[in-house]
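User: Can you model how zinc ion sits in this protein?
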Amino acid sequence: MKKPFFYLAIALILLAAILMFNTIRVKHSIEAVEKVEVVSISEKAIDHLEEAITIKTISYNEEELFDSTQFELFNNFLINTYPLLNSQAEHKIFNSYSHLYKLEGTDNSKMPILLMAHHDVVPIASPALWSVHPFDEGVKQDTIYGRGCIDDKGAAISILESIEQLLKEGFETDRTIYLSLGHDEEVGGQKGAHEISTFLKSQNVELAFVLDEGGAITQGLIPGLDQPTAVIGIAEKGMVSLELDVMMAGGHSSKPEKETAIAALASAISTLSDHPFPKHMTPVMEEFLDAVGPHMGISNRVAIANRWLFNSIILNQYEQSSQGNASVRTTTAPTLFQAGIKDNVIPTMASATVNFRILPGETIETTVDYVKDIIDDSRISINIKGSGFDPSPISSVSNAEYALLSKTIRSMYPDIITCPNLVIGATDARYFSAICPNIYRFTPWKLSPNNINCFHGVDERIGINEFEDAIRFYRQLIINFNNLE
Ligand SMILES: [Zn+2]
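Assistant: Here's the modeled complex, given as structure tokens:
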């Protein structure tokens, strides 16, 4: 063998050895857990969820459509349906329709926990596409249908049922438990969760753990992973909308100038779309890959265990899908475009709105700077529209709280793995960052390619078994946190 080839062969053998060594070294660190006994759930729980769904607590962007009578009905439903909670917990109402319950613990050396959900729902965009009535169908065979099943009345009712059942069993809590139910999550949560978090902060409350929506039990949604996987949100993206305006000479369409306001704005939007924000391997993505990698096939395992070499290949693969892309970069979405009033008049003004979802590590400020830099056109004014928010802090996966959440999930759902993830939408949980470092986002709904589109979409539904398991899950979680020192 010639000398250069000899060295190349040695280098390749060394590289293969390093890759294999790293791959073998990375084992999943999840210890086996004992399954907990399956407790029976009151048959009335299903009636309660059905009843909650019939109450049309819809959040509209247009404030004048807000139907206060429906939210009052929901207030009454809470009082009438959960007598033990209402008699044993402190109850505070915020802006008439958001609720905070406090079940005082006997041991104030244990920091309180907060379980949260929201009871407002999004409107029905295409009623004709539903195979059932979105508010009145209830149970069909083994499934509960209706707007809010998954997002988020299902979780609200599951948490309420779990607490009511525990109180019926004579459960007395050492650790203070808060339950927060927001009535405006779908329109930003300012009147509900924001007010509740501000109140708790004013009372100097510090929380050991917060659980909100934002993750689920997925199957067939993570490429390369076949097992059911409980995806737990440990951070959420930030958000900002920018308005782009152009003012240029208009006039009669029979003698247009070389460039018009519409053309200049369209060109700016097109430049933005052609220059996506840089993709990054965030700390959240690293944690996600560390958790799922060991459960994948050999080629994925080698790549994930050797990210020093395969980082860009992994990122390239993730950016192929819209969900994956949103996990590795700040996204750019033009959502509004306005110009013109008549077909023979060149408008003097054109305006567009672009919505950005900001990756952890970046901010509103860096997003605005990037956009100005890329568009680089002094004719286009760029301004923040409404109020955005920076990405949330990232909650740890190496504390007792995350371990207990993961363990509780694994003790209730057979053959499941858990992993941390980035929530690409926004949840009410972000308001609690100031009073809790350990915020997690997970509801035990089973999402697969078959039903993922019913979220905010058509035929929203959950299985009866799934709902009963959710009540068991929250019940067990409360017991486990009570036992945690
Ligand atoms: Zn929701």
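A couple of observations from the model: The domain at 237-389 is CATH 3.30.70.360 (Alpha-Beta Plaits). The chain has two domains: 44-222+392-483, 237-389.
User: Helpful, thanks.
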